[in-house]
Each structure stands twice: as C-alpha cells, then as structure tokens.
Amino acid sequence: MMKKMLSSALLALCFIQAVQTVQATENLYEQHYKAQNGGNLKSMEAKPDTKMYVSNHHDEDNISMLETGYDMIGSSGFEAGGIVADLALAHAKSIKADVVLVYSKYASKKSPLSKLTLIKEAAKTTGEIEPEAMEDEPTYQYYASYWAKLPTPLLGLHVIKLKHKAKDSETIVADEGLKVLAVIKGSPAFKAGLKRGDVLLSLAGITLEQPQALAQVASKHKGKSVDIVYERNGQSMESQATLNSGH
Question: Which of 53, 57, 143, 228 could potentially form a cystine with 103 if both were Cys, beta carbons 3.0 to 4.6 Å apart?
Fold first, then answer.
C-alpha cells in the first residue's frame, strides 16, 4: 500500500514538474501572435540578424518603418505580469523578422474584487490563503510588431482606400483615389515629390480605385517613366517618376 502511495506521489510530482516546465517555456508573444499580409511576408535573408527595439512611440514608429522600406509581418498584444522583452525577440527570430518593436505600459494592480474572489475560494477549501496571493501584483499591457525589409520597390508608396458615410445618409461611400500612408525614402515616388497624406488619383493615365490596381499598373510599366496625378490639400497636382525595374 505504501509503495502504491509512493508511486502516486512520484507521478504527481512528475506531473507538477512537467506543468512548471511548460509554464516556464511558454512564450506569450508567440501565443498571441496574429499575422497580416496573408502570413507570407518574411525576411529576404535565410538567417536574418533580427534586431529588437523597445519604444513608446507606436504610431510614429509604424510610419518610420514603412518609410525606410519595411512592412509589418504581424503583431502580438496581451496583458500579463512581468514579461522579459527577449521573448519577443525569440518569436521574431522564429518567424524570420528583420526587426521587432516592443512596447509595454502599466495596466493595473490586483483589484479589490479579485482579492475578494481569492478569499471566497479559500473559504470553500482549506480556509487558508497565502500572504503572497493578497499582495498587489502589477500587470502590464504588452505589444510587439514584427517587420521584414521589402525588396526595392517599383514606385515606393504605401496606400489605403478610405471610405466615409454620406451626408444625411447611412450609405458608405468610397473616397476618390488612394490615400498615401507612407512614401519610401529614396524611391521613385519620393523623388517625384509625393508625401504622406496625398491622394493618389492615377498612374500612367490609369485611374486608381484599389491598392491592387496600383501594384498592377506599376508592374506593367516597371523601368519606364510614368505620369502621376495626385491631390494635396484639395489641390490637383502632377509629377513624373521613373519606376524601378524590379531586378
């Protein structure tokens, strides 16, 4: 009987140790990761030297990354206790990102309600509660964005199609053209004078209504000089750009 109890105790101990090992190795950045761009984007390098930067300027960083020729692979967001940033770097390496940007901010301490729940649960069982369980344990909001360097762009624009609600109606109407989110530095679009906030109307005489159309027209005219029509602050403007060849 004693031998059977001892075996059960050892089995339970092994189980606890296994659980602790899993908990010690779990990566919340990986668990909460969401891919974008279809999940196919990754570094052009077979073994990228992934860089990690810790920042507090999320929106500005996104624009800066786009302007320097990167695109986002995906992101992770969650709330937890103390988590080391190196876990974000480990996940970034596993998905072959060139850069990972890490953000964190204080969320809250253990609420009176959560403490009351602990007391009630203890009352139902042993009637005892560890002092550590009642301590104020801070939690933080974590966010990481993962980036890959893009090949040399044909034109060098990041655009989006915007929509708005029509006046005196619930009808959703698409805005004219494509809103420029970022212009890649040194690209043909950059040299042609386009800026973030411009509205791209046409390229090589083709009216642009969807982001996919921009990629198609640029690919068709790669290596050639094309006319660009765009709008800035409500004023129609024109320019020319010689597209890269894509090699």
Answer: 143
Instruction: Clarify whether residues 193 and 238 are in a common domain.
Output: yes
| Tens of pLDDT, residues 120-160 | 666 667 666 565 555 556 789 999 999 999 999 999 999 99
CATH number at residue 199: 2.30.42.10
Q: Could you give the angle at the alpha carbon of 38 between the alpha carbons of 34 and 42, nearest 5°?
A: 80
68 and 122 co-located in one domain = yes
Beta-carbon contacts of 52 under 8 Å, excluding residues fewer than 6 positions away, are 85, 86, 88, 89, 92, 99, 100, 101, 102
Element (H, E) at 241: strand 235-242
Number of C-alpha atoms within 13 angstroms, CB side, residue 67? Answer: 14
Burial 171-209 (b: 16+ CB within 10 A, else e): eeeeeebbbbebbbeebbbbebebeeebbbbbbbeeebb
Rounded to whole angstroms, what are the CA distances from 126 to 112, 117, 120, 122? 21, 15, 11, 6
Residue 38 lies in a domain: yes
- Which residue range is the domain that position 47 belongs to? 27-149
Q: Mind listing the pLDDT tens digit for each residue in 63-96?
A: 999 999 999 999 999 999 889 999 999 999 999 9
Q: How far is CA 90 from CA 27, 93, 146, in A?
A: 9, 5, 11
Number of domains in the chain: 2
Dist CA 156 CA 222 (whole Å): 12
Among 126, 149, 172, residue at a domain's last position: 149
Same domain? For 183 and 136 the reply is: no
Instruction: Say which DSSP state 137 is in.
Output: -
